Amino acid sequence: MSLSASSTVAFDQLSPTSPTDPHALLDAREEAARSIALRMITNACTVEGVRIGIHFSNEDDSDLVRLIVSHLSTRLPLSRYLFVIATNEAPAIIGSDACVSGALVICGSDEDDMQRAVLLASSKFPGRVDAVNNAGTLIAQAASIRQLGSSSYHEAALWDVMFTSVRVHNPHSPPSESRSIDQVLSDARAKFERMTPQQAYDALHDPTYPVPVFLVDIRTAAQRDSGGEIHGSLVIERTVLEWRFDPRCEARLPIADRYDLKIIIICREGYSSTLAAASLHELGLLNATDVVGGHDAWIAAGLPCQKGC
Asked: pLDDT at residue 192 above 60?
């Protein structure tokens, strides 16, 4: 479901009646709550059999929020649901250091879902939660979060809270969106053409190669000590590889000033090198690749190396 499907109906758009008439205001608030609840239900998506949705409001009207919660409960008596109602206000003086707290009301049909959602929401806004009412009621929990709604991140974060809260997770079963390491490796290798040790050696020593070529050894120091080093290779620790070759990074190597470099990664057996090369592709270094079989295959092919071979 698109994040844009969140309910964002403003109270003042639904209640054009005069605020000087208390009965008219009460009727307008009731109508606004009913309309917002219906829109939230209509726009809701279903995850693991649970209806979830979010409503952002520019109005800080606790009575309206309570009515919305009541309408949701009334209209979904037999359904499992979890909704977030978030209110936010802008500081009166733009650019000031004022911190305005918005109300975050999490309502649902299952108390465990709501408790998880409150805890997850608190973790999404570290250092900005002023108060959390974990007691709440059987259908609603509430929190006060500073500057809620001031960033586009907030809606995405709240959607993540909702999806995570209602998913029934067996700790022994992989989450649906996860991949095994074999799948990750296969997907990475689909991005580029790998090189045999001989091909890598030939490219490294070919003065006519159309772009600069670098053989990058990411093995650990212990592996290099025991297995030997490759003459002409660049030794770069895996933990800093991306920072050394990203042309946009201040910590890059002087040679990493272009995106067409032929970077050939070699590790001990040709597994972590694949993931390293795929990571360089994410940076825009689309000529990055790795050596099939790694250093072990290099030695087996009889290619030259220094001490320890």
From this structure: yes
Dig out the tokens for 115 from the structure.
């408790």
The residue-averaged pLDDT of 97-117 equals 75
| CA of residue 110 relative to chain centroid, distance | 26
CA–CA gap between residue 275 and residue 102 (Å, rounded): 42
Q: Which of 13, 108, 111, 133 is nearest to 53 (CA)?
A: 108
Predicted pLDDT of residue 95: 37
Is it the case that residue 243 has pLDDT exceeding 50? yes
Closest-CA residue to 59 (of 11, 14, 107, 13): 11
How is residue 150 annotated by DSSP? S
Q: What is the pLDDT of residue 208?
A: 97
**Rounded to whole angstroms, how far apart are CA atoms 6 and 299?**
59
Angle between helix 181-189 and helix 272-282 axes, rounded to 10 deg: 60
**262-273 pLDDT tens trace:** 999 999 999 999
Residue among 38, 31, 105 at smallest CA distance from 76: 38
C-beta separation of 72 from 54 below 8 A: no
| 39's tokens | 């829109």
How far apart, in whole angstroms, are the C-alpha atoms of residue 306 and residue 228?
6
Question: Which pLDDT band, with edges at 50, 70 and 90, does 10 fall under?
Answer: very low
Nearest to 144 by CA among 121, 114, 110: 121
Identify which has the larger pLDDT, 155 or 1: 155
Sheet with 262-266: list strands edge to edge.
234-235, 213-217, 262-266, 289-290
